[in-house]
Amino acid sequence: MRGKSGAPESKAMIAAGVQAAAVGAGRCRRGDDSDPPPERRGRRRLPVAAAVVGAVLLSSGCTGGSDSDASASESPSATDSPSPTPTPSVTPPYPTGADGCHDNSGWTSDEVRTWLQIQARASDVETSKDVAVGPVQEGFDGPLCEPVTVQVEFWKLTYGSPSEKEKSDPGTPDFYFAMERAKRTRLRTDGSGEQQVTAPKKLYADDRSVCVGALVTVTAGKPLSEKELPESIKLSDAAYGNNDTVEFRTERVAVYELTRPKAAHVCNPEGKPTADPDKVPAPTAEPEPTSDPYGYDPLPLPTLDPATPTMSFG
């Protein structure tokens, strides 16, 4: 799996400090015919933060006095009508003008990326087998006066373990990965309607190789170039799920979703499985639980010897 290209190898971490790294750039292969030659990976990382816009609706109320007589005397008469609670005015984040659209002619690349972070949804790609780009709720879509070009790209990541000789080097990552584009789709959207991009079937198939993972990226503008691809990937397990980070060498990526390989620890340096994953536990596998689910074993109860004399008081 590791070629002889001059590109540096990349590093990544899995779970509690486990690392994976990209094999040289020369191993990226071209995806579908519409794609340019796939670019090489580099070192990685980039958590994507989704922009969140919220509105707080304020409600008003009144309180009476502590004395019951005073409260009664201050109560409104039957002919009084309660004052309606004012409804605060909320300005949508992308208000429309006289033309019925939001003027985005002067947007910077950061503003385009922020808008696309709200529009694109890829977190459930492994189950839904698609990526959606379109309005989320009223006020967030605009729609825009000038449509934005969006690139949805699917990448195949093949993982492999270092050789036995490399493992003696403390700087060696736990895994390598080779990266190639599997599919690219170009969209034009103003946010007024949802568009779905279907993922490659083989890339997310349940019976895919245990050494193969996937990555989907949603980017505004042109496709990702070789020098923008990641060189390292950090996989870490948190209390409430995975917290994986891909270090792209660009800020253009608005949304991405990484799908892990099923058992990279049984893969040889060429990215081929060499053992049954069910029989070879992963290096970060949880230890066998103790008799107590919270990790505490009960203290042994003392045994009473009936021959032991007792103390008496008289």
Automatic annotation (TrEMBL):
Residues 15-26, 62-82, 292-314 have a biased composition (Low complexity). Residues 83-95 have a biased composition (Pro residues). Residues 29-40 have a biased composition (Basic and acidic residues). Residues 1-47, 62-108, 263-314 are annotated as: Disordered. It comes from the Bacteria. This is Lipoprotein. It comes from Streptomyces graminofaciens.
